Protein: Probable ATP-binding protein YbiT
Amino acid sequence: MISIHNLTVDFGSRLLFDQVSFVINRRDRIALVGKNGAGKSTLLKLIAGLEEPTSGHVSRPKDIRIGYLPQVMQLKDGNTVYEEVEQAFDDIRRIEEEVARLTDEMAGRTDYDSEGYAQLIEHYTNMSETLALMQQGNYHATIEQSLIGLGFERKDFRRPTSDFSGGWRMRIELAKLLLQRPEVLLLDEPTNHLDIESIGWLEQFIASNAGAVILVSHDRAFIDNTTIRTIEIELGHIYDYKTNYSHYVKLREERLQQQLRAYENQQKMIRETEDFIERFRYKATKSVQVQSRIKQLEKVERVEIDERDRSAFHFRFIPAQPSGSYPVTIEGLSKAYGDHVVFSDATYTIARGEKVAFVGKNGAGKSTMVKCIMGELTDYTGKLALGHNVELGYFAQNEAQELRGDLTVYDTIDREAVGDIRLRLNDLLGAFLFGGEASEKKVSVLSGGERARLAIIRLLLQPANFLILDEPTNHLDMRSKDVLKEAIRNFEGTVIVVSHDREFLDGLVTKVYEFADGRVNEHLGGIYDYLQTRRMQTLTELERSRPEESKSSREAVPETESKADYRRQKENAKQLRALERAVTACEEKIEALETQLQSIEQQLQDPKNAADTALFEQYAGVKQELESVLEEWESASEALSEVQASSSEA
Structure:
């Protein structure tokens, strides 16, 4: 569908791409990965036609619709949220004209068995389906579903876009872009400002979207769940694998190991051949063999090992004296802004050395809770106490904006560093992509992502025994996140992480505090234990408004282990039966809908039905219903597999 051929981008002092070639096919799901600065965003702009290469070219079909979501957007105000998103349907007149043109073209053609006619039918079907959705007024429901899926509430629909922060306005643009249904969707870091629930909604949308999707993201879980092809950009070259990122990493490592073994074997053969040549070069009796070996060497196709950027760094937080046993204790804490209750009756204690996550929708109170703990907010009710000898290290969402613009990158870090780490400042800066000349840049000229990385480095250098990190990974690439994650994992103090990055939280936290509906609920276990619990509750319709827990219930004596095991087994059996019924019902419905589609498709192959609008609308409706049931079947099947696995382990 889109062909990239011998693409070269040369900035003079730096070769970004060196004769890169690949093809984007219809319905491809591609993840572009690589270090910050490798050229991922530039490649998206080249595909979108917003920039031109130094040489080579990008071939696109004439009428292809490409939707592009950049990291930084210039947004115009003046509309409400709903009015802004509704602009996605402004092209209804153009689609009407296209449907009329296609109808005329079909009526004038007789090559009914040709591939071109089949493509014409498919294009007509897609256009008619979109037009039918618009004309029936259903697009209003689609707009509402998209906005709610991305975290908006109905009361937000009529608010002006100027009321919202940059992150929420990015969601407005994302909703508008998704509703335009382009054939190719280019997304540059779409999850940076989304919470876990909205990321899940976006994953489902991409999975059911019929067009090609090329995305840049440093969220491993997101790209694993949405893509089936990985293109890694490294040192000007690309490595293209038809698999998701996690599997690609394994395959890439295997390939490099095979290359290394082949290289070593070939080098051994070359050395032995050269030794033979040198040993017998001047012996007449061996002249034939020597000439043969020389020709053999000339014909050898040398094995090359892929060049890799292996820059990496391991770092530990500067330790402080241990805190008391309980760095923070909260009892009956409530916070409201006027009539709006952010959270109420929050009660929990975090022990020394625990690493916990705060999760929930944006605006649910996570950052407000952090500000209470930090002492930035004091107009709350209830009790909040910090433990003995607590030394806080804090990374705020706006931390990057607090850096002094008149200092260089190196000076900013040099002012914070003490002790032996001063000897390794260049290594630390290099690990976060500030090596060489980049360390001499003024902070005032850094991008938002660069400022965020610099703020993380500064935090790493501050002695602390209690870290609070509010969305620390938004602008970090995978390797920089690995450096930070390893440092947090090895940190002996206490950590609170506010994050939507599931892969970053996986294996890092042992407790999750969910902020939802004005309450703070504690979940024991890691992030995927929490997500599995939430998924189970949703699929089995167990996720209802939680009743207020009485004080007596919170102080109740825990169940015995055997009784708890029995209850778990009983609940698993109940869930298993419900999910088996749901899967069976979906499969039966899918079979019926597929049969119905086949029947309509046979009718559409008849030339006399080529202009039958009602038949095409029926086809579009059945197809849409089938996609919905397929999504339901996939969710139920996944949940069933998880319950079966947990039951067998028990």
Confidence is low (pLDDT under 50) at residues 538-566. The longest helix spans residues 561-604.
